[in-house]
Write a structure and sequence with these properties.
Helix content is 49%, strand content 14%. It has 11 helices and 6 strands. It has a 6-stranded parallel beta sheet, with helices on both faces. β1, α1 and β2 form a beta-alpha-beta unit.
Length: 230
Amino acid sequence: MAQIVLIPGLMNDAWVWRHQLGVLSRLGPVHIACNDGCDRLDGMAARILDATSGPLAVIGHSMGGRVALELALAAPERVTRLALVASGAHGVGAAEADGRRHLVDLARRDGMGAVADAWMPAMVGAAGRANAGLMQGLKAMLSRCAVDIFAAQQHALLHRQDRMGSLATLPCPTLFVAGDEDPTSSPAFNREMAALARHGQYVELDNAGHMLPIEQPSALAAQLRAFIAG
């Protein structure tokens, strides 16, 4: 039985996976990774490998998907299944660095609550933005992230490698999940990655943006369960 690894994204913690935990724990033991304290994606991946043993079914959301990909490339013999949720494999975009540095400057000046207010609207689909409880919970999670941890994670993303060419080398089944309203990890881009992967699969969830684990919790849980169960 493979251990299931859940890797949260930028600023995120275990709260983001709470809706999927029960369903996935029926399939095997679950390890929720912590990305705090690392400023490189491969360092985050190495820490997960050190903290676990045996075969792994690895699921990553957003930045966590990039960590999951680094893990699978570093130890392909240990990864039985790989799921990238609202994530990517491309390198740093031309306009991306300025945006990330602006958010770090905002965090240092005004705190993580200000970052949450600036970042959330574009990351959540229309239905999610209208859900006050969802938005309050999301802001509370982002506000739990210390400024220095946020800066280190942004550093990791700004120094990442382009892994598009590595997707074809993945030996395991690889699932790409996109929300139909996600501007940062679009359905078209996820379909492209799935086509490049040797055993790629693509799933699109309706009425959702980038925060799929909380915007479409039941639908995502069902897709992940079916994928991990094989």
